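To fix ideas, we give here one paired sequence and structure record:
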Amino acid sequence: MKARWDFDVSEYVAAIEQAGENINKVSRDALGDVAQMLKSEMIRRCSSQTLTPYIQVYTPTKEGDFNYVAVGYVRDLSYTPAEIAILANVIEFGSVRTAAKPHIRPAVRAMRARVNNHIAAKL
């Protein structure tokens, strides 16, 4: 049975089992790779040159066995000033006076299969 991605779920599970003890390092490395892929696509789609320097990657992080990475306008004032976060929200979702010009959500949708396949290949 095929998942909605391009790889077989049983192959994915076998790859995780094979990674064994190194699964957290392997998954963090893969997250770092795909974070850069997503960042590039978000920047490519962004209509505002003011915003592009603030599309960033928050380093792949581990909490217990949970690995994650944040990409985009990171919710931390040391990464994204409040006025930039407000502008990014208006550009992405629109406002009463401004039509939306989304770039974050379309980038994630467009890259989903590539991201999943890359992570599966790293495992």
Summary: The CA atoms of residues 45 and 103 lie 5 Å apart. The chain has a mean pLDDT of 84. The longest helix spans residues 23-45. DSSP finds four helices and two strands in the chain.
